[in-house]
Backbone:
């Protein structure tokens, strides 16, 4: 399957998780316990990780279908700025605001207006009752003020219920701008890829490599490195330090650096300057 898509970096954690699931399969565990298979589970896992692209190619059709649906879902969630520009974006926002309707606006304004009216009515009513206790208008205004408080509380309760219902609806609909049916198709395609990766790719590969040699480690440049080169005490082949000898105890080495010769060194002619002490008194 040379046309199989390359396994993307964001999908490698899924590959690794399905690989761990395959290594826990009973047929693999029973085969690892047999003496003729000298690989352990960790060595088998290392080989499957190094050959991830080759192994995943067996589930290439499902993976290609999953990638296509995932790209469609990502494009459906992005606004098409190039097609409509700023005008289309503003018109979309206006249509969204129109879709909200009058009811949400009233649920927000009704408590504020009701409590403002209640405060004013209660203030006027209690002032009238203090000035003219016998006047029935003061009692009526106070009653209207308390009724406005009750109306504000009821409007606030309705607004809270509506807000909760809107939040539940938006959470079930998924991210803004994405098609819920397309999101469900992407999830189904991902599960189908995982199943194909387990049954058609990883399990056959693990069974086929139970009796193989351990995987070679990978050099930083991408070349395989034999295991013996990774053992402690290994030095690079074909290399020895350059010949070097230090000066002998009797002198320096000869010009070729092989045999010591006696050092011949005489200091330059030098005598201390004449000096006479002070005259004795």
Residues:
């Amino acid at each position: 399957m040379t046309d199989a898509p390359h396994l993307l970096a964001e999908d490698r954690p899924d590959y690794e998780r399905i690989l761990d699931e395959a290594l826990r399969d009973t047929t693999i565990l029973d085969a690892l316990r047999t003496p003729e298979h000298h690989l352990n589970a960790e060595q088998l896992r290392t080989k499957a990780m190094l050959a991830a692209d080759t192994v995943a190619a067996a589930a290439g059709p499902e993976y290609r279908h999953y990638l296509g649906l995932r790209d469609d879902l990502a494009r459906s969630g992005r606004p098409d700025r190039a097609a409509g520009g700023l005008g289309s974006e503003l018109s979309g926002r206006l249509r969204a605001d129109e879709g909200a309707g009058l009811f949400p606006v009233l649920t927000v304004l009704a408590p504020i207006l009701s409590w403002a009216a209640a405060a004013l009515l209660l203030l006027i009513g209690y002032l009238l009752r203090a000035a003219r206790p016998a006047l029935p208008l003061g009692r009526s205004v106070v009653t209207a003020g308390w009724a406005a408080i009750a109306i504000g509380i009821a409007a606030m309760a309705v607004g809270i219920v509506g807000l909760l219902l809107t939040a539940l609806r938006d959470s079930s609909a998924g991210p803004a701008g994405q098609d819920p049916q397309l999101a469900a198709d992407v999830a189904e395609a991902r599960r189908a890829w995982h199943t194909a990766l387990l049954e058609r790719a990883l399990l056959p590969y693990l069974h086929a490599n139970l009796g193989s040699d351990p995987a070679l480690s990978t050099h930083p440049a991408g070349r395989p490195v034999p295991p013996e080169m990774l053992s402690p005490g290994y030095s690079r082949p074909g290399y020895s330090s350059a010949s070097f000898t230090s000066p002998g105890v009797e002198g320096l080495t000869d010009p070729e650096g092989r045999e010591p010769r006696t050092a011949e060194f005489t200091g330059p002619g030098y005598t201390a300057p004449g000096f006479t002490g002070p005259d004795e008194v």
